[in-house]
Amino acid sequence: MATTPGTFLVDQGRIVSATVADRVLQRRFAGLADDDRSPEASDQFRLEIELGATYADGTRAAVSWRPRAWVTFRPLGGSPEAKARPRGDGAVVAYEGAYPGVVAAFGGTSRQVKEFLRVERPGTAPELRYAIDRGPEFGALELSDGELWAYDVDGEALFAVMPPLVKDAQGTEVRGAWEVLDDGGQTLVRAALSYEGLVYPLLIDPSFDTPLWKADNRLNAANAQPPARGAAAIAYSRLRNEVVMFGGVAGTSYLRDTRVRFASTTTTAWDINDLSASATTKPTARAYAAMAAIDTGSAASAPLYLFGGQASDGKPSDELWRVAVSDTAAAWTQVTPTGPKTDATWPRARLLHGMAAISDTTLLLFGGVDKAGTMLTDTWSFDHSLQKWTRLCESCFPAAYGFATVPGRSRPTTRDMPVVFGGYSNGAYLSTPRRWNGTNWVTPTIADALVPTNDSGIVTSTVVPGSVSPQGRMLGFGFWSNTGKILLGGGVQASPSGTDTYVNDLWSWESPAANGGRWSRQASNTTLGLPGSRESAAAVYFELPGTGVSSDLSPLGLVFGGITSVTSAGSSTVIRSTRLYRAYADTVSLSVTRSNSVFNLVATTNIPDQQGYFVRRNGSVWELIPGCDQIITTTGDVSCSINVASNTAATAFAVLVRDSNVHAAYPGGAPGDGCTNDATTTDEPLCGLNSAFPGQAICTRNGNSNNFSCN
Q1: Which of 308, 397, 656, 680 has the most Cβ atoms closer than 10 angstroms to its Cβ?
Q2: Among 185, 210, 235, which residue terminates a domain?
Q3: Distance CA 60, CA 19 (A)
């Protein structure tokens, strides 16, 4: 990958000049032409972007573990006179006059690079069309849910180009889609966008991304997905290391197929067949059932259980089914009571409930709604060895249904207890989490997200601290992440106008193993390649075998299908895409200690590709700490010492991380964003800080003392 004079490289969130870029590229790419490299934990997600000396030269993208699988996007109609110019802080490269009357700016991290096109006047919005040049190991471009995914010659997903987003002067957002065209053998990519009714100036935002969420691993994976559906039951069997899914609804049709996702040491894939297609004994078609796995015995005999659900006649079921899955078939057996079925010996029929394992041989069943529309508050346990239900309580579960159930992770020496979030109760969407503590359902105390942040997760200096947490919803999804957090998103919630809206967001509950922790907004609907607005998706946490649960790269979150709309007649519009989630194990911690008249602040980080800052909170305003204003750009410990007397009004200290994507979006600065209006000078630290970035750290003063508690 050769550079030309004036070319700039995005390297770990910073722009370096052509002379440095040449050395970096020679070191990074020399001798790799014949390597058959697989992704390494340290660099698998690193996205390397080469920006042309002029805008017309285009943008070349690759991932560091497959450098010869590069692809260049050359903007047709882009100006060859628009030369690359780095901003004074080195975080952004701008092209003045990229198109007539349009300024382009690039900024990013090692995993995402965004382009922002600022269009000042009507009639000047460019048609975004790109010619595609390919490296020798580049395979193909494939559309998936409006995103453009790049694959290498082996069919492995490399990165995505997110659908372009247009935001107008009043904050209205319009999402576009990519189209792939063939122009006489030349591949062209075009953005389908509508500017009708928007108020200028506009900000157009396409981005390159190695997102937290990715489409199914392999090229043409869309052709090997289970049929589209929502409201399917899903569970993960640790002993078999497989994801099993049953039933669901598509339109007005209820399904009764058994789908299995098998795993190898490097990838996972759905079996294209219904493993119960030829079975004469299996559950009837149903949706909104619950499924859980028992981790006892051998992999060959490890069972999963299915309870309840809604049949096509609208009635809920009280059936319990056990399934044993092999590589070629799913054998279903109905579990029946040994004595009379009564309210004291067998759970009532229900749907929109939850079920999860609480030991290797015990299941927990809870909540839901019965055929009369009564919200159920009971909790039951099922003993796999005895094949027997026991009612643990009649009214210990909150009256709600349609909540997201997060089963506890089954690990060699311990197991997490199940957690539920949200749901619907008495006309309201809930936002309260509950955890089973072994004997009862408890409400953990979770602090609000680290702020200052607005509703899009972007830091501002004036937002009231502690004011952001997930909005109430039902039919969302949840699962554990590989970094030990619980992730929640999606579903249906009420909009300010009072109508139901489908949600496309992602929140994490930091430190969920303790009775506490903190909410953190991981993404809004315009970032990180989220699964898209949907409810009743099937979601689960699972592991890749042979790597161990301690590996940062072994576990994945999976979200399949979901409902995107429902007609007044009850017919649902469903999707069939699989989204895989793999978090980065990025962390930032902060400690504050006092030594006589000095506060000692120590930040520890393993995030090499961001710019971090020490800040303090005075009242409701966050600001840079005088005397502690160094930029944190290295891993390890960074410390500073400040006078106690100069910080008596500080109620908290924090380490916040600059998100260069946001930084690039405001090349001229905007009121209240902490950015200066002079693009040639270094911007103020609060510009582009983003509490949605993993690993923010905060220490809060304990009352009027000089002691601080840190998260």
Answers
A1: 656
A2: 210
A3: 18
Strands of 650-658's sheet in order across: 621-624, 611-618, 650-658, 697-701, 708-710
Q: What tokens does 562 get?
A: 């979901």
Task: Examine the fold and report which residue of 150, 178, 210 is the final residue of a domain before the chain moves on.
Answer: 210
The rounded distance, in Å, linking the Cα atoms of 303 and 324 is 5
What is the Cα 409 distance to its own chain's centre? Answer: 19
User: CA distances (Å), 221 to each of 144, 189, 208, in order?
Assistant: 10, 21, 21
Over the range 53-90, which residues count as b (16 or more CB within 10 Å of their CB) and which as e?
A: bbbbbbbbbbbbbbbbbbbbbbbbebbeebbbebbebb
CA separation for the pair 186, 207 (Å, rounded): 22
What contacts 74, CB < 8 A, 6 or more positions away? 56, 57, 58, 130, 131, 132, 133
Question: Domain span at residue 661?
Answer: 588-710
Domain total for the chain? 3
* Residue 560 within any structural domain of the chain: yes
Judgement on whether residues 161 and 280 belong to the same structural domain of the protein: no
Q: Do residues 321 and 283 touch, judged by C-beta distance below 8 A? A: yes
- Could you identify the residue written with the tokens 């809930």? 430
DSSP-assigned letter for residue 535: B
368 contact partners, CB below 8 Å, separation of at least 6: 308, 316, 350, 351, 352, 353, 354, 375, 376, 401
- 496-540: per-residue pLDDT in tens? 556 678 888 888 887 676 556 777 766 544 444 567 788 999 999
Confidence of residue 625 (pLDDT cuts 50, 70, 90): confident
Question: Does residue 232 share a domain with residue 203?
Answer: no
In a domain, 447, yes or no: no
pLDDT tens by residue, 180-235 = 988 887 889 999 998 999 999 888 888 776 666 776 756 666 667 899 999 999 99
Predicted structure pTM score: 0.74
The tens digit of pLDDT for each residue in 538-581 reads: 999 887 654 433 333 356 788 999 998 877 777 778 888 888 87
Q: State whether 282 and 394 are in the same domain.
A: yes
Q: Which two tokens stand for residue 559?
A: 């979200």
Residue 451 in domain: no
Whether residues 189 and 42 share a domain: the answer is: yes
Which tokens sit at 211?
């997102």
- Separation between Cα atoms, residue 477 and residue 420, nearest integer Å: 10
Distance (Å, whole) CA 59 – CA 128: 14
